Amino acid sequence: MAFRNNSCFLSCGHLNLNHCRRANVQLPQVFIRFNYDIVSVNNLYFWESKVTEFPTGIRKYFHDYKPLAVFLISNPDIEVFPLKILKTLVAIEIKVSVEKFLMISVYCPPSEELGENINEIITLLLRFSQEKILIFGDFDAKSSIWGPRNTDKRGNIVHDLINQFDLVVINDRDSLTLFNGPCGINWIDIMMVKNIGVDRITEWKISDRITLSDHQIMELKGTGTFSTKKIVKISVVNERDFFQVNIIY
After folding, report:
1. CATH number of the domain located at residue range(s) 9-223 in this protein
2. pTM > 0.85: yes or no
3. Residue 163: band (very low, low, confident or very high) from pLDDT cuts 50, 70, 90
4. Long-range contacts at 157-163 (CB < 8 A, ≥ 24 apart)
5. Do the beta carbons of residue 107 and residue 87 sit within 8 Å?
6. Where are the domains of the chain?
7. What is the pLDDT of residues 20-49, one digit of tens each?
8. How far apart are CA 27 and CA 23, in angstroms?
9. Using an 8 Å Cβ cutoff, are 173 and 148 in contact?
């Protein structure tokens, strides 16, 4: 797969499979049909503690025992350097053309506290503070920043992370539903960036196509060139969801 032109420098996806085997089996077709370079996968299907049915033509980065976070990479031109491989978090450094990016895929089970995963993310953000960073994850956290829901306790913890490290949330709070299951609908998958101008993101959306999971796939396309558009940066200034908006030229 050759790199695209400057209108689409990198194509990424993020999907929580919710441990669904059918969704797991369908994933290779999604790669081929929609031409993704990289997909972050949470809560994937495994049998007897091992991942099964992932295609051999795609590079896979995940823990060898009951993994809950994975990076799948189909573009052979992307150089990959694994940094941290845990059950619930995978961090890799990739080189795309002449640029390096730190990419983090994280899954925070609703039955567990956020603390351990947040601490791992903090360690990586401190270590790679000057690098271009993309974070994909299901934090099982509610916030009026990334969805039409009141902020809960877990959402406030993610707010603190956003403010501490000057992260930018890419999600559109008015997007399509990210999760639709027996417990209702929700917006709990988040995409955040650091040291990447928002003008480089040419497209972000929640796809409405069938995934066979109760989550929808979140898509991001980025450009290799900078535009002259203004960047709108939104930061949470307290847990009551007041916002500070800065226009950067």
Report:
1. 3.60.10.10
2. no
3. very high
4. 157/114, 157/118, 158/114, 158/118, 158/190, 159/236, 159/239, 161/118, 161/121, 161/122, 162/192, 162/235, 162/236, 163/235, 163/236, 163/237
5. no
6. 9-223
7. 555 566 666 666 666 789 989 887 766 666
8. 6
9. yes
